[in-house]
Each structure stands twice: as structure tokens, then as C-alpha cells.
Amino acid sequence: MTVTTPAAATAHTRIEPGILYFGTTVVLLSTLNETGSPNLAPMSSAFWLGWRGMLGLGARSKTAENLMRTRECVLNLPSDDLAAAVDELALTTGSDPVPPRKYERGYRHEPDKFGRAGFTPVGSETVGPPRVAECPVTMEAVVEAVHPLAEDDEAQRGGVLVFEVRVRRVHVHDAVRMPGTEDRIDPDRWRPLIMSFQKLYGLGPQVHPSTLAQIPEGLYRGPDIERSRDQSSRANENRFTKGNQR
Q: Is residue 142 a part of any domain in this protein?
């Protein structure tokens, strides 16, 4: 049995918030539609481990549909000064007709996401979808696995998918690079756009030195980096990825 003091017992209040978006980086996820045109979707249910990313998406979204079909994407990370442009994509979908649930929430079909937000598409090196020129960080990636979420609950089963993606190329603006290094991002120069409880924020200044920062960043380099460097062609990689799906 846990014994608490009166002060500790009153420090928290039990609540049941509808969402638990405590603050994550906004990602503009570019994919290719079945017509070959690009789709661009803002999302923030993402986290990173090494050169892998986990992306949570509605199973019936256009982006999820494109990912399942092509197994390719670009993860474009906007800076906080792009908030207004990113917000132009809110309540838009590449799906036509608009799915009923999204229609009820005010979504409308937008065939030209890049044009609506005023973003410039630029070609990728290893995947089909374009990168966003204005985003300081863009990452070309392929889907390695798809994990269903909430399969234990009949009411939620089939509604959300988590895509495990492997990054193959990282492109950055020189403005966010750490001076004197080749491969490091300067966290004092990189100001990501953050979503917290459906609102957009910037990242504040460092509040305290981190003991973890004493570990050389190079010690975290994993085999996916070497693997991305050895890609001889996009076609070979596609064959490798499709072979893993069988």
C-alpha cells in the first residue's frame, strides 16, 4: 500500500481529457496519389528512434492509403515561422469524396496541397514523393512495417495504423547546421513547430544543461545510416521492401 502525505494527495486532480497531445513535432507528410500527384498532410503523432520513425495515422486517410500502396514518403519538418502556411492545410483532405467522419468535422477536399499552403515541391533522391523546399529538415523514407493500433478494442479496431518508416536521406538547410560539423543539427538554431492540444507553438530556449549531451552523438549512429548510404538505386530498394512484405 502506498502512503501519501496530505500535500501529495492534493497535488493532482483526476481528469479525462479527450486527447493526450502534450506536445510533439509537426510533420508535413508528403506521399503520392494513385494519379501520381503529390499529397501533403500535416500530422504530429510521430516519434523517432535512430533513423526510424513511428507515424500514427487514421487508417482511412488518404495518406495512409498512399503509404500502403507505394511504401514511400517524405517527412518534412516545418520551423515555427511556417505555422501560418501549415495551418492552411488544416481541415483539408486529399480524399474525394470526403469521408463522412471528416466531413462532419468540416474537412473539404483539396487536390493541390502544395499550392494551397504556398509550398514549393522539390524532387527527392530515393523516393517518389517530393520534398518541401521551405522546410529546414526533410527526410526521405520507406515503410518497413505497419502496426494496427487498439486491436484489443472492438470499437477502435481497424481505425488507426502505426507506420514504421526507415529514413534513407536527410536534407537540411545550412541555417540549422551546427558550425564546424558536417552531420549535426544545432538545437539552438533549429526551431521546430510544435503541436500541443491542437494548438501550434514554437520551441523555447534551453532551460537547463543536459547530462545526456555529454555523450558523443556519434555513439548513437546505427546501421540504418550505413544502409541508406549503400542504396544503389530506388528500384533495388523497392524490390527489397516488397520482398519483406511477403
A: yes
Any domain includes 8: no
**Grid cell digits, residue 73:** 514518403
Q: How far apart are CA 222 and CA 239, in angstroms?
A: 23
| pTM for the structure as a whole | 0.87
Q: What is the CATH number of the domain that holds 186?
A: 2.30.110.10
H helices of the chain, in order, are 6-9, 62-70, 83-87, 100-104, 113-117, 223-229, 234-245
C-alpha distances out from residue 104 to 57, 62, 91, 98, 216, Å: 18, 17, 11, 10, 50
CA distance from start to end of the chain: 50
- pLDDT, one tens digit per residue, over 47-95 is 999 999 999 999 999 999 999 999 999 999 999 999 999 999 999 888 8
Q: Which domain range does residue 161 map to? A: 18-245
Q: How far apart are CA 92 and CA 98, in angstroms?
A: 9
What is d(CA 136, CA 68) in angstroms, rounded to the nearest whole number? 27
Classify residue 6: in a domain, yes or no: no
Locate 148 and state its grid cell.
494496427
* pLDDT tens per residue, range 147-163: 999 889 988 898 999 99
Q: How do residues 161-211 score in pLDDT, each as one tens digit?
A: 999 999 999 999 999 999 999 999 999 999 999 999 999 999 988 899 898
What's the total number of domains in the chain? 1
Residue 12 lies in a domain: no
